[in-house]
Amino acid sequence: MATATGSNKMRVRSGVGIIGAFVLSLGVIVTAAAPRFHNAPASADQLKNPYAGQAAEAKAGASLFAQNCASCHGSNAQGMANIPALRSGATQSAADGQLFWFITVGEPDKGMPAWGSLPERQRWQIVTYLKSLSSSSSSKTKPVVGSSR
Ligand code: HEC
Question: Is the pTM value of this prediction over 0.90?
Answer without folding.
Answer: no
